[in-house]
Amino acid sequence: MAPRKLFVEVTTSVHQNEYLARRLLHEQGGSFGVKGILRSKKTGDIVSKPHAHTPDELATDLAGQILERLKSKSDKNYSQATVLVINCVPNSLILDSEWNDAIERVTKAQVHLAFREVFLLEPVMSHSTTLYGDLKRVLSPKGEMTNRKRRPQPKFQKG
Known about the structure:
The protein is of the alpha/beta class. It is 27% helix and 27% strand.
């Protein structure tokens, strides 16, 4: 049975240079992406250079971004009935295998356990995953939140 009240916290996982890429898109019509972008120390101009990704770089970066948001949100004192929704903005288009690899890394880190559920959403390629907290939250007969047994985490197989 679901609790009578759920709290929803929404945040975004994004590369720290995303705002610079968006500014270049607006001012110059495009950029090479967030990994090859910087602000010139001499002129203050935004400079965008091509960046070639290594095979597992996108998944590693996405997992790092998600974990950073999870750690930041875990430091706050949320109710046990909190569901965290993370809008994930990868550094580039991300394949199913890269998404699954990133989610596996996040799951292994066990940072999501502070929340009832964590819903990860990547809207461009329509990826989504739900991770469950450490303890199954159920209502007692009096309608109070109680902790029972551990929920199983999703299993990933590399194919």
